[in-house]
Design brief:
It is built from one helix and two strands. It is α+β, with helices and mostly antiparallel strands.
């Protein structure tokens, strides 16, 4: 049975390093039998975690 993962990330936070590795993170989660749902968090565009 697959584990469900909700991956929230803010591409604008910090030094934007997540944009370079987000695909690798998702790929590794799927290798470990996870079903990944991805939500970008962009408060300035009205896309929050609420």
């Amino acid at each position: 049975m697959k584990k469900k993962v909700m991956f929230l990330f803010n591409p604008e936070a910090g030094n934007n390093a997540i944009e370079k590795i987000v695909f690798d993170i998702i790929k590794n989660l799927t290798i470990f039998d996870c079903e990944v749902t991805v939500f970008p968090i962009m408060p300035d565009k009205g896309l929050g975690s609420e």
